[in-house]
Amino acid sequence: MSKIIPSVAKLLAGNTVTKVGAPVATTSSAKYSTKSEASFEIKPFKLHKLEKGPATTATLTSEDALKLYEQLAILRRIETASGNLYREKIIRGFCHLYSGQEAVAVGMRAAMRDIDTVITAYRCHGWTYLMGASVVGVLSELTGRRTGVSRGKGGSMHLYAKNFYGGNGIVGAQVPLGAGIGFAHKYKGDGGVNFALYGDGAANQGQLFEAYNMAKLWDLPCVFVCENNGYGMGTSMERASASTDYYSRGDYIPGIWVDGMDVLATREATKFCIDWCTSGKGPLVMEMETYRYSGHSMSDPGTSYRTRDEIQEVRQTRDPITSYKDKILSNELATPDQLKEIDAKVRQEVDDATKQAKAEPEIGIEELAGDIYVDCIDPVIRGVIPNAPLQHISVAQRN
Fold it and tell me: What is the mean predicted confidence (pLDDT) over 53-66?
């Protein structure tokens, strides 16, 4: 795990340059930040078949600084609530938490445009929220209630939102689907880019390399994003992969290694990917080196194949929220009062959503055949009981 846990000295390297500006306009009663913008040095990217990579200096406004902090905090809080609901046996079945990996999703989403699409694996709660679902919609889906984004029928692994194609339960299966979505972007000529995310545990799947091949043959606007959290279930990447340089696994597809614990690095890398794909250069492979604090799923304590000291060291030296908080405070893009106010707001929003997710009822049996089709030609749906067909109904609102 030496790649996963760098020394503190490396983490603290890098200079910052701040620019003085007007205080941030806000209705908050907290003391305002005194600087409107700052520039940050980013840990160098590793490149494969690229002469030039993403910018290694990122500029951040005070307004964006607060927005990113709030999103990071909400994702962490959603997963804390999810873990508690699972322990209470209100969430049943599989439940995979994203705690520790928040900077990947938040930074990527900050760079994405409305036309861009995302498809990921089953560690998808945070992505669902970032793509437009409400906190209630996420937590209610986890508890199987009618206010869930899938009406409570999908659960933890099957959440969806506009331009967000899940939430997929089969390891690696979302990657060729992502290539298909990239094909749709190119076919329609809408200028969109698809981001297909998978873990290091799925990186050895044959279907990934088939998707790479087709994406490069057709120069699809698709970015294959490996969220390398160090472990595929309970197996470390060193034990599972002959090559752990996942960003170079595309061979003939250019690749980028990114510090996935730095929200500014993930944002800048995603900007680069969008520029690359929209200029007709084809796909990219992007490795986000990150870490998960919980086990693979809630049924995995996560300490039988790694030590508690390892987890604690990452929390103390690389936590994506703590390190980002220190950056924006030291560069006066935010004040402690402003961040405390955001923390309180996030806590209240997630707590209220948790209460609603517990209180809402489940859907009725009449929705068993609901929303199978967008445009239903034949409303008679065959069920498992002979001569007892179901009746299709439309429930979800359509845009």
Answer: 97
List of residues 6+ apart from 27 with CB closer than 8 A: none
Asked if residues 272 and 54 have their Cβ atoms less than 8 Å apart, the reply is yes
In this structure, are residues 129 and 81 in contact, taking their beta carbons and an 8 Å threshold? no
Domain count, the chain: 2
Are 260 and 392 found together in one domain?
A: no
Q: Which CATH number characterizes residue 273's domain?
A: 3.40.50.970
Q: What angle do CA 16, 73, 113 make, to 5 degrees?
A: 75
CB-CB contact of 234 with 5 (8 Å) = no
pLDDT, residue 30, reads: 53
Tell me whether residue 35 is in a domain: yes
Residue with tokens 């545990």: 201
CA–CA gap between residue 218 and residue 283 (Å, rounded):
9
The helix or strand, by DSSP H or E, that contains position 346, with its residue range, turns out to be helix 336-359
CA–CA gap between residue 263 and residue 267 (Å, rounded): 6
Give yes or no: residues 353 and 372 share one domain: no
278 and 373 in a common domain:
no
Give me the residue label for tokens 């809408």.
190
| Tens-place pLDDT, residues 171-212 | 999 999 999 999 999 999 999 999 999 999 999 999 999 999
Dist CA 61 CA 67 (whole Å): 10
For 236-294, what is each residue's pLDDT tens digit? 999 999 999 999 999 999 999 999 999 999 999 999 999 999 999 999 999 999 999 99
Three-class DSSP category at 235: strand
Structural domain for 387, as ranges: 365-399
Three-state secondary structure call for residue 223: strand
Q: Annotate 78-146 with DSSP letters as a single string.
A: HHHHHHHHHHTTSS-S-----TT-HHHHHHHHHH--TT-EEE--S--HHHHHHTT--HHHHHHHHTT-T
390 in the same domain as 276? no
Percent of the chain clearing pLDDT 70 (strictly above): 92
Q: Is there a domain that residue 336 lies in?
A: yes
- Directed axis angle between helix 320-330 and helix 263-278, to 10°? 100
Task: Name the strand (E) or helix (H) holding 195.
Answer: strand 194-199
